[in-house]
Amino acid sequence: MINVQRLSKSFKEVQALDNLSFSAPDGQITGLLGPNGAGKTTCLRIIYGLLKSEQGEALINGIDANQDPINARRQIGIFPDKFGLYERLTVREQIRYFAQLHGLSGMELEQRTELVINQLDMSSLANRKSAGFSQGQRMKVALAQALVHNPKHLILDEPSRGLDVMSTRILRDILREQRAQGTCILFSSHVMQEVAALCDRVVVMAKGRVAAEGTPQELCELTGESALEEAFVKIIGSDEGIAA
Ligand SMILES: Nc1ncnc2c1ncn2[C@@H]1O[C@H](COP(=O)(O)OP(=O)(O)OP(=O)(O)O)[C@@H](O)[C@H]1O
């Protein structure tokens, strides 16, 4: 369970997060939906311990990301907004490296590495260096790195950006599998279709705050709309920065 309580963060005069509170339960996919600049990435970075908040706390399974970032991070698989791959390493080497960073060693390291390569159907890529990989292939490597330590929480920043239909479907299937295993999944998006297709719960963010939250159906009922897209526009008062 990820619990964000009264988070505030500013960058000079920009108030990126303003008393933001929400929770993402285990075994569910929670979408952070908001227009450009709403504060989604800032929130995810604080949860992963890459940024410190000025106020409030982000608890991962009860562990405070500000106070104990290393332990908090061990609970999380992160799928970042830019796939920073090590292009000189083979895919298998990269996945092993991430497994080591998360404290895996010996047999467990080898087994988890092979398991995730098979799970993502990457055997034909495993011994190749990632320089020149397509966007979909890069996505798989990034996902394998996020999953190799079998984290109980998965955080994804705009996961389907730049992916073609097939890669998007693979990603969605993996997220659904993870959900079925009880993983707490939190992802950010401004793509309505993605949120509608995947999310059990939606947290609508605008200007660093929660504008509304609930199941897609609850958000529709709240606004008297039948489509999530219309509900969203009503909640934030604009369709700026949102992709259908
Ligand atoms: N390192 C930084 N330095 C200065 N301003 C920043 C920094 N990071 C974020 N901001 C500002 O904080 C606000 C929130 O940014 P953030 O990236 O969290 O939004 P977002 O919802 O993820 O947007 P997008 O959908 O465009 O990725 C924006 O106004 C942004 O310019």
UniProtKB/TrEMBL annotation:
PROSITE patterns named in the record: ABC_TRANSPORTER_1 (PS00211), ABC_TRANSPORTER_2 (PS50893)
GO molecular function annotation: ATP binding; ATP hydrolysis activity
Keyword Nucleotide-binding: yes
Domain ABC transporter residue range list: 2-232
Keywords, in A-Z order: ATP-binding, Nodulation, Nucleotide-binding, Transport
SUPFAM superfamilies recorded: P-loop containing nucleoside triphosphate hydrolases
InterPro entries: AAA+_ATPase, ABC_transporter-like_ATP-bd, ABC_transporter-like_CS, ABC_transporter_ATP-binding, P-loop_NTPase
Listed Pfam families: ABC_tran
PANTHER family: ABC TRANSPORTER ATP-BINDING PROTEIN, ABC TRANSPORTER ATP-BINDING PROTEIN NATA
Family indicated by similarity: Belongs to the ABC transporter superfamily.
UniProt-recorded name of the protein: ABC transporter
Provenance organism: Idiomarina aquatica
Taxonomic placement: Bacteria, Pseudomonadati, Pseudomonadota, Gammaproteobacteria, Alteromonadales
